[in-house]
Specification:
This protein has helices at 6-11, 16-34, 43-46, 50-70, 77-90, 101-115, 122-126, 133-150, 160-174, 185-196, 206-220, 226-233, 237-255, 262-275, and strands at residues 291-293, 299-301. With 302 residues, it is mainly alpha-helical. A two-stranded antiparallel sheet has the order 1-2. The termini are far apart.
């Protein structure tokens, strides 16, 4: 159950401020460890800033979602939910300068298939990728154990999609005045997809996210669900008020999402290739890379 889960104890945070502090700390720890030969005044132009890391990771979250949606055989929705939860958890305490997001992205999807008991052999998994599939397979298997250790082997994800299924069953059972609750599914799933591309999954419970999706869908369908929430689902004014407050927070975070500036992300990608940790680069032929600033604020490896 979620109430006694590692997800609640270790991977549910008080809010965006706490997450930002942890991510800035991961960013600064990397720069401190790898920037000894880079003058202080040149570090911002050489290494990724916290803001650049967030934009870069947003790009890979979108790619991850597209990959899951196009995968063959088709994934159940829980694979997407677990993959994005894993991806978000990893970057709370790690910098994309240390581990490239593309390596972690493939690893989390492959691992999510195992965790959700949707078995896909590695050969079939990489057949969904374009390029050197043998290399992709090696990368995934190389990073799998490292990824699990970074998450302290907390691999159970309580998924908002499962919570949504529970709510739909409850509505069919205890709120019979609503005909055909299944019409809420499509918009609710799309709303949950948007929640998964944000820190909502690291702050709120799966049931709160699922209920937010159901109510969003009800609004789209011009259905009044107030009585279901206040009289059927909840008992007591305090519970209702707490629930409404959390739903408003979720709605605010979803609304605040902006379109990604892909040109800017492309510039960040180029910057990452200069400052990333080559020891964790499967394509690198060197074991220990030392960076020196050049006159154009770039870098070279020795």
């Amino acid at each position: 159950m979620f109430a006694s889960s590692t997800q609640l104890k270790y991977w549910t945070f008080s809010g965006e401020t706490e997450l930002k502090q942890l991510r800035i700390e991961a960013n600064q720890n990397f720069i401190k460890a790898h920037g000894r030969n880079v003058p202080e005044e040149e570090r911002a132009s050489y290494f990724l800033t916290y803001e650049e890391e967030r934009l870069l990771l947003r790009q890979y979250e979108i790619i991850l979602k597209e990959f899951c949606n196009k995968f063959q055989p088709p994934f159940p929705k829980c694979i997407l939910g677990t993959s994005l939860a894993f991806f978000r958890r990893f970057w709370v305490n790690n910098s994309p300068m240390d581990y490239h997001p593309k390596d972690i992205m493939l690893t989390v999807v492959y691992l999510a298939c195992k965790v959700e008991e949707f078995y896909v052999p590695i050969g079939q998994f990489v057949s969904n990728l374009k390029g050197n599939r043998e290399k992709f397979a090696d990368t995934i298997l190389t990073f799998e154990l490292l990824f699990m250790s970074k998450l302290r082997y907390h691999l159970t994800v309580h998924n908002p999609f499962r919570a949504m299924e529970g709510l739909l069953i409850d509505i069919k059972t205890r709120f019979k005045e609503l005909e055909n609750p299944e019409r809420l599914r499509k918009n609710a799933e799309e709303y949950i997809d948007r929640c998964l591309l944000s820190d909502i999954v690291l702050i709120f419970s799966p049931s709160q996210i699922a209920l937010s999706g159901i109510l969003y869908s009800a609004g789209k369908e011009m259905i009044n669900m107030d009585r279901y929430v206040t009289e059927v689902l909840m008992t007591g004014l305090e519970d209702v008020q707490r629930c409404i407050y959390q739903l408003k927070r979720i709605k605010h975070m979803v609304k605040r999402d902006k379109d990604l500036n892909r040109e800017l992300v492309g510039q960040i990608q180029k910057k990452l290739e200069r400052c990333r940790n080559q020891e964790n680069n499967p394509d690198s032929e060197v074991g220990d890379v030392v960076y020196f600033p050049c006159c154009h604020h770039g870098g070279r490896a020795r």
